Amino acid sequence: MGKIAVLEYFRVPPRWLFVKVVDEAGNFGWGEASLEGHTQAVEGCLDAWSEKYRGMDADDIEQIWQMSWRGGFYRGGPVLMSALSGIDIALWDLKARKLNIPIYQLLGGRVRNKIQVYSWVGGDRPHDVTAQAQARIDQGFHAVKMNATEGVGWLDSPSMIDSVVERLKAVKALGIDCALDFHGRLHKPMAKQLAKALEEHRPLFIEEPLLSENISAIKELASLVSCPIALGERLYNRWDVKPFLEAGCVDILQPDICHIGGISEMKRIAAMCETYDVALAPHCPLGPIALAANIQIDTASPSFTIQEMSLGMHYNNTGQDLATYISNPDVWAVKDGYIDILTGPGLGIEVDEVRVRELSKNAKAWTIPTFEGPGGELREW
C-alpha cells in the first residue's frame, strides 16, 4: 500500500514528455506520455489529473486506469489516452520496482529471451537511404524502415512510384529487410498503385498505406496485394482496434504504448492480436521510457514479432537520443538484429533524473511540420 503523493511531468528534447509518480513512502516510477506536436495539450490533462489521483493507492493500477477512462464522461482520443499512458506506465514501473522484479513478471512472465528490432533510415523526405541503411547494418540491425514518399498529391505522377521502388531495391540490395511507411500520406488513387508496384519487391510490410479512418479502403487494398499491411499508431484503445481485426484488413498491428493507454491497454490488445492471428509490432519512434515499456509487453506476448526503436532517428538532431536520459544505455546494444530483454526491476532502465530536470528547463514543444503541394494545397505529413 502506498498513496500517490506526487505526479510530475518533464518536457525534454527532442520531442518527448516524461512522467514521474512518487508515493508517500518515496517509491517512484517513470512513464512517458509523448504525443508528437501536442505536448501542451497532454500537459494540461496531466495538470488536471495530478490533483485527482493524489491520495489514491499507487498499487491500484487498473482502478486508476478505469477512473481515467470512465470517470470523465468523454473517452479516448490521442490527448486523454497519451496522458493516461504516461501515468499507467509509471505506476507499473513503481509497483515492479517495489517488488524488485521486471514488469513482465507481473504480466505472466517471459515467452522469449531477446527482442527483434528495427530502426529508421531516410528522414521525413527520404534521401541517402543506402548509406544510412549500411550504417544500420554496421550497428547490428537486420531490418529498417523508411518513409516511402514525401508529400503526395491525391493523384500524382507515376514517376513518384518509380522512385519509391528504386529506393526499396537499393536498400534491399545491401542484404537487409526493409519496411515502407506510407505515413497516411497517400490517398486511394496512388496507394493502390504503389502497393501493387512494391509487391514483387517484397517489403517487410507497408505501414499506414491509407489513413485509419478509411477502413473500407484499407480493406479493399488488403484484397489487392499480398504485402503485409501494418497500422495502429493512430488508434487509441481496444475499441478503435476492434473493427480492423474484425475486418481482417491488418496483418501487423502497431499500437503506440504512449497513445493507447499504456502497458495495461497494450497487454489487452496483444491478446486480441493473438485471437485474430495478427502480429504485434509496437510503434515507438519515441523515447527510452516508451521503448522500455514496449519491451516489457514484447517479452510477455506470444503475438509480438518486431520492435521499432528510435536509435539514431533522423529527428534526434538536437543531440539527444535513447541513451541521453538513462544511466544504463548498454541495454540498447543491438546484436545480430536483436536486443536483450530488460532484466532490471520495473522498466529495466535507470532514468537519469538530474539530466531530465536539467534538459527540461525551457524545453520547447515540438511543432508538427506541414507539407504543401505546388498549388499551395495542404498535403498529409
Automatic annotation (TrEMBL):
Pfam families: MR_MLE_C (PF13378), MR_MLE_N (PF02746). PROSITE patterns: MR_MLE_1. One of its GO terms (biological process) is amino acid catabolic process. It comes from Cladophialophora yegresii CBS 114405. The lineage of its organism: Eukaryota, Fungi, Dikarya, Ascomycota, Pezizomycotina. This is Galactonate dehydratase. Its cofactor is Mg(2+). It comes from the Eukaryota. Keywords: Lyase, Magnesium, Metal-binding. Residues 126-228 form the Mandelate racemase/muconate lactonizing enzyme C-terminal domain. InterPro entries: DgoD-like, Enolase-like_C_sf, Enolase-like_N, Enolase_C-like, Galactonate_deHydtase, Mandel_Rmase/mucon_lact_enz_CS, Mandelate_racemase_C, Mandelate_racemase_N_dom. SUPFAM superfamilies: Enolase C-terminal domain-like (SSF51604), Enolase N-terminal domain-like (SSF54826). GO terms for molecular function: galactonate dehydratase activity; metal ion binding. The keyword Heme does not apply.
